[in-house]
Write a structure and sequence with these properties.
Blueprint: H1 2-36, H2 45-57, H3 61-76, H4 82-101, H5 111-131, H6 138-149, H7 155-173, H8 176-198, E1 204-210, H9 213-224, E2 229-234, E3 241-249, H10 254-264, E4 269-274
Antiparallel strand pairs: 1-3, 1-4, 2-3
Helix pairs in contact: 1-4, 1-5, 2-3, 2-7, 3-4, 3-6, 5-8, 6-7, 7-8, 9-10
Length: about 290
């Protein structure tokens, strides 16, 4: 019974992973005909090299990118896990196909708009692919192998070097202007990837240092139907012990929580931070993770 449940959960997670990969390939692939290729923006990596080759020789970006990536997958196959390599191979092929087969007219001929919105689409797509446990770049595998052989070189540093070389190539083959826009694209797409991976939840984590922890937590539980966790804390200046309450609430509930704290203890110290992702009762569930 227990093994059957675990098997069902694994199948469900596997389906969700492949669904994210497919959606990511479609969204990221659409960034090229809509924004990047028409405006000659090479967004780093091997796909950026393919964009430069498209500019020079009119080669299709998708097929060229796949031709550059596949040998790297063969080289890196043994260094990576089989599931990761298999998913990444599917993502690479599908992403390359989407770039060439999605026949959408360019939405703008403004290079700045193209680099910004192309980066957002590309980053969102790549983020979904990464959440699905895959990657679209053989350069990622080479970066991991280089890191394994030379630990002093981090994966991020190697990929940054590759992106810099692609941008430098874009400056010589296209123009310095194209390279500068590519830098904007790489920066924004990286932020978009981070947002997709970390989540875009609008929940707030509220930290309350107070002498009236019981009164405040009771009202949070009763009036807001939210949980609260109490931790013992010591003020390093006064040396006195106080209670630290932690409560995660939605953005619209922050004012109500602050009102409760103010009424219960005007001397309380409160700081509130954003949470990128909140999982558990009252917020997002764990099913998609």
């Amino acid at each position: 019974m227990k093994q059957s449940l675990v098997h069902k959960l694994m199948k469900k997670e596997s389906f969700q992973a492949y669904l994210q990969i497919v959606l990511g390939c479609v969204i990221g692939g659409a960034a090229y005909p809509l924004f990047l290729v028409p405006n000659q923006i090479a967004p780093g990596g091997l796909t950026g090299i393919a964009t430069i080759l498209n500019y020079l020789f009119n080669l299709p970006v998708g097929i060229t990118s796949m031709a550059l990536n596949l040998p790297l997958f063969l080289i890196g196959y043994r260094a990576m896990g089989r599931v990761f390599v298999f998913r990444s191979l599917i993502a690479t092929v599908l992403f390359s196909v989407c770039i060439d087969l999605i026949r959408l007219p360019p939405l703008t001929d403004d290079v700045l708009l193209g680099s910004v919105y192309g980066a957002i689409l590309l980053g969102a797509g790549l983020g979904l692919i990464l959440r699905g446990g895959a990657t679209t770049g053989g350069s990622d595998m080479i970066a991991r192998m280089v890191h394994n052989r030379f630990p002093i070189i981090s994966v991020g540093a190697f990929l940054f070097l590759v992106d810099c070389l692609v941008i430098l190539a874009a400056a010589f083959t296209m123009s310095a202007r194209a390279a500068l826009y590519a830098l904007i694209c790489i920066f924004i797409s990286a932020r978009a990837v981070d947002l997709v991976l970390a989540g875009m939840g609008s929940a707030k984590a509220c930290f309350i240092i107070t002498n009236q922890a019981k009164a405040i937590s009771d009202r949070i539980l009763q009036e807001m139907e939210r949980g609260a966790t109490a931790l013992s804390a010591t003020g390093m200046y006064s040396g006195k012990g106080r209670t630290l309450l932690i409560s995660v609430v939605s953005q619209r509930e922050v004012l109500q929580l602050k009102r409760i704290v103010r009424q219960a203890d005007e001397r309380a110290f409160v700081f509130i931070t954003d949470t990128h992702e909140t999982l558990g009762e009252g917020f997002s569930n764990w099913q998609g993770e």
